[in-house]
Amino acid sequence: MGRGKHRKSTKLVFVCVGLLGAALIADLLWASTFPYKSSSSSTLAFNSNYPHPSSNSSAKEEVTDKKDGVHGRILSKTFADLPGPQLKWDRMSESPVPRLDGAAIQIKDQLFVFAGYGTIDLVHSHVDVYNFTSNTWSARFDMPKEMAHSHLGMVTDGRYIYIVTGQYGPQCRGPTAHTFVLDTKTKKWQDMPPLPVPRYAPATQLWRGRLHVMGGSKENRYTPGVDHWSIAVKDGRVLDKEWRTEMPIPRGGPHRACVVVDDRLYVIGGQEGDFMAKPNSPIFKCSRRNEVVYSDVYMLDDEMKWKVLPPMPKPDSHIEFAWAVVNNSIVIAGGTTEKHPETKKMILVGEIFQFHLDTMKWAVVGKLPYRVKTTLVGFWDGWLYFTSGQRDRGPDDPTPKKVIGEMWRTKLSLPLS
Ligand SMILES: *[C@@H]1O[C@H](CO)[C@@H](O)[C@H](O)[C@H]1NC(C)=O
Ligand SMILES: *[C@@H]1O[C@H](CO)[C@@H](O)[C@H](O)[C@H]1NC(C)=O
Ligand SMILES: *[C@@H]1O[C@H](CO)[C@@H](O)[C@H](O)[C@H]1NC(C)=O
């Protein structure tokens, strides 16, 4: 005991400095998340103590070992980028508002774009509609006052949009249990039975006549939930009195893609952990916590047992509305991958992935114009569209910066294999 005492206290000092450092980095990351907020010079000074990884983009994916071995290896900032074909992108007309962590549902040639943060202190409470035929933002209407503003679960049957739970309010407030149905023909909203408990960014789909909700985080935004519920729905009406408990998902957590193709339900990517409100903060100020990002793919089929399928080419999260089904495959655009091992900064994803449902193989089928997370994707007449989310700082810096409203499209060529 005596021998270790001094070391112990030294260690404690290091731990404290480490924690302080983590808190400052968290602040810096939120500052970088929302460029409107100015960051203090002390935060910037602190950051300059960190090793600056090479900004040479041609040195991508290279791992360099420092000769002295004391500081360990230095990784390029862009080490997580994967090679992929460059695509030709057209810039279309910009969304009326920038949004982060919004939701989108496509019905034929219309993309309904919901909610989202404009800044960390401002959330949207309306729907913008983009028409893929006229290529214009063609309508706008309000959401119910009680509906969550970000991190919603959402799915459509082709006319009605079912909306479950999600975060209510700005900063890092918790989720609500409220659920709604929108009739996209009449633009009328109705209540549905609330989810048994609120969930943050749960995986949501319609499967075999039932609305399924699973995973996500619990009320504190951080703790992964593995619960899975369903309720029977038809043409915008709920047929059950209450939610039914279903088989828990093997891994919980928010920000996954959840897709049904050919009567099979897939849950892809996502993470455990997320930003949380600072204890006792009256505005629920966000503070960063540890997150682990996954490449996992789970599937439910006739056997009603969760099956594990081949993982994504790299861990990918913040993709809940960043997918489209094209030619018997699932296409996923952007996201976030594991944090940088040295700087601990959040790393955005700039690839488009394709999961072939016949061969169960993944491929990188293209690069986005930049790396972007929580982007909202649609597919119409051979074109892949994306709008909104948060983009990177530039080709050599994959950390998040600007919240965008830009709309882009590219002609896809993904022949049936
Ligand atoms: C970038 O790295 C490559 C390969 O390591 C090197 O050939 C090139 O000169 C570097 N460019 C700059 C601008 O440092
Ligand atoms: C989209 O725009 C096209 C061309 O202006 C129009 O014919 C079509 O009705 C619009 N779609 C919807 C659902 O309003
Ligand atoms: C889908 O596959 C067909 C047949 O191989 C091909 O002609 C078509 O271009 C593909 N569509 C897209 C969007 O890649």
In summary, what is this structure?
This is Kelch-type beta propeller. By secondary structure, the protein is mainly beta.
Give the class from helix and strand content and strand pairing.
mainly beta
Going by CATH, the homologous superfamily of the domain at 97-331 would be Kelch-type beta propeller
Give the terminus-to-terminus CA distance: 66 Å
Strand segment count: 34
- Under the CATH scheme, the architecture of the domain at 97-331 is 6 Propeller
Which percent range describes the beta-strand content? 35-45%
> Biggest sheet, open or closed, and with what strands and sense?
5 strands, antiparallel
Question: What is the typical, i.e. mean, pLDDT?
Answer: 88
General shape:
globular
Low-pLDDT stretches: 1-5, 27-70
Bound molecules: 2-acetamido-2-deoxy-beta-D-glucopyranose
- The whole-angstrom Rg is 22 Å
The level-1 CATH class of the domain at 97-331: Mainly Beta
| CATH topology descriptor of the domain at 97-331 | Neuraminidase
- Put simply, the count of helices is 2
- Helix % is under 10%
